[in-house]
Amino acid sequence: MSWAQKINNKIYFAGLAVNTGVAWLFSDGDLRSFTWLMVMLLTTVFSHYFNIKGMLQLIGQRIQEKRSLGHWQMLGHFAMKLLLLIIGLVCLMVFIPNKVLQGLILYIFQLIILVLSIKNIGKFYKKGSSS
Amino acid sequence: MRKFFLVMGLALALPSTILGLFFVLYQLVKNDVISWNTLLIILLIVVSYTLGLMVKNVLGPKNK
Questions:
Q1: pLDDT by residue (tens digit) across A50-95?
Q2: Which CA distances in Å does A125 have to A4, A91, B21?
Q3: Domain limits, chain B
Q4: Where are the domains of chain A?
Q5: Which of A21, A60, A61, B50 is most exposed, with the fewest beta carbons within 10 Å of its own?
Q6: d(CA A115, CA A111)
Q7: The pLDDT of residue A79
Q8: A7 φ/ψ angles, rounded to the nearest 5 degrees
Q9: Which residue among A89, A97, A98 places its CB closest to the CB of B15?
Q10: Which candidate from B4, B12, B19 shows the least CB-CB separation from A89?
Q11: What is the distance between the alpha carbons of residues A58 and A69, in angstroms, rounded to a whole number?
Q12: Looking at residues A107-126, what average pLDDT do you find?
């Protein structure tokens, strides 16, 4: 199962576009701040991609009770997610420490966008659903 | 299942925790209340504790 089957790309990328605009506002026209805020946003987007892939595998394993199938691949996805997030956060904290609060707002907004763009989110909470 | 959601919650909250904590500690550094080293130590302790909590819940006995 892929990202596109679970995430509404229109909503997600519209949210990303809005977030890019907000990042430009937060950077006060300073290209350096904008660049690092965008690095943080892009690493967040890729970490969401790997998170969704890992989560779908995890949920699939829980439903089918096949723990060994794709276990290392799933761990790889979560490791990539963590690595990307660490890169984004460290860049933000090292290069523009005075814009960390703005970075936090952008990160939380992107997380909200991810949750809003999940297709049929209710199915995740229903017991016995395999789709 | 409860532990699964606990670990997921911790994983999702970790970046926000790091950024929020860094913001607060950075204000303290700017006002000369604490040094950069103290900031790093506090940040590392909190991150390690959260990661440890996640690992403990993943490896611990199952709670259905």
A1: 888 887 777 776 666 555 556 777 788 888 888 898 899 889 889 9
A2: 20, 36, 32
A3: 2-59
A4: 3-118
A5: A21
A6: 6
A7: 87
A8: -115, 135
A9: A89
A10: B19
A11: 10
A12: 79
Task: Choose among B15, B22, B23: nearest Cβ to A85.
Answer: B15
pLDDT tens-place string over residues B23-46: 999 999 999 999 999 999 999 999
Residues of B in contact with A92 (CB under 8 A): 19
* Size of chain B, expressed as the number of residues it contains: 64
Binary contact (A104, B12; C-beta < 8 A):
no
Pull the structure tokens for residue B47.
């991150």
CB contact under 8 A, B19 and A92: yes
State whether A108 and B16 contact (CB < 8 Å).
Answer: yes
Question: Which residues of A sit within 8 Å Cβ distance of B?
Answer: 62, 85, 89, 92-93, 97-98, 100-101, 103-104, 107-108, 111
Dihedral over alpha carbons B62, B3, A116, A3 (to 10 degrees)? -40
Do residue B15 and residue A100 have CB atoms under 8 angstroms apart? no
Distance CA B38, CA B47 (A): 14
B19 with A107: Cβ contact below 8 A: yes
The pLDDT assigned to A32 comes to: 93
| b/e per residue B51-64 (b: at least 16 CB within 10 A) | eeebeeeeeeeeee
Residue B25, token pair as written in the block: 């500690």
